[in-house]
Amino acid sequence: GFCTNLLLLQTPENILAQTNSKTEILCELKKEHAGVYWYRWSQERQNFQFLIFSSLLGKATYGTNISQDKFGVHGGNSHTSYSLHISHLHASDNGTYYCSVSQSSQLLLGSGTRLSVVDVLPLPQKTTQAPLSKKPMWCVTKRKASSKKG
């Protein structure tokens, strides 16, 4: 079975990346382990896909049809932090990525990192405008509330 666990801390929680760019996901382990597994959950295909296993010696084992050019794992010397590198990003890479360690026939999953690949990244201006557009809405709801009281 799978269980999510606080012993594996994944960062960041969400990634928005552009097609053909690359990204990385960090996994910090607070538990002894023999190596780290990486999986992807695809909402579209409704399946967990095994991507790559990285042993303590740094040897990588890839899942079926997983491109070695696309995925790579870099392990910290301390064996407590690992990062999954994904390059040549494509819409088919969308999904939630989990680092995982095996413990007494269970797979402990990290907190998950959701990756969304888009052709064009949204302009940073939009984020500064968002709070402004929210304010008038807040005023409207407040007015409605006060008129109900009256």
Characterization of this structure:
The protein has 150 residues and is α+β, with helices and mostly antiparallel strands. It has one helix at residues 124-149; strands spanning 2-4, 8-11, 14-18, 23-29, 35-42, 47-55, 60-62, 71-75, 81-86, 95-103, 106-109, 113-118. The protein has a single domain (8-118), classed as Immunoglobulin-like (Sandwich). The protein has 1 helix and 12 strands, in the order E-E-E-E-E-E-E-E-E-E-E-E-H. The chain is globular and about 45 Å long. It starts with a strand and ends with a helix. Residues 127-150 have low confidence and may be disordered.
Q: Give the overall average pLDDT.
A: 81
CATH superfamily: Immunoglobulins
CATH architecture: Sandwich
Estimated radius of gyration = 20 Å
Main beta sheet strand tally, sense and closure = 8 strands, mixed
CATH class term: Mainly Beta
Helix content range of the residues, please? 10-25%
Helices and strands, in order, run as EEEEEEEEEEEEH
Q: Uncertain regions: pLDDT < 50 for 5+ in a row?
A: 127-150
Total domain modules: 1
Give the termini separation. 57 Å
| DSSP strand content | over 45%
Structural class of the secondary structure composition?
alpha+beta
CATH topology name, in short, is Immunoglobulin-like
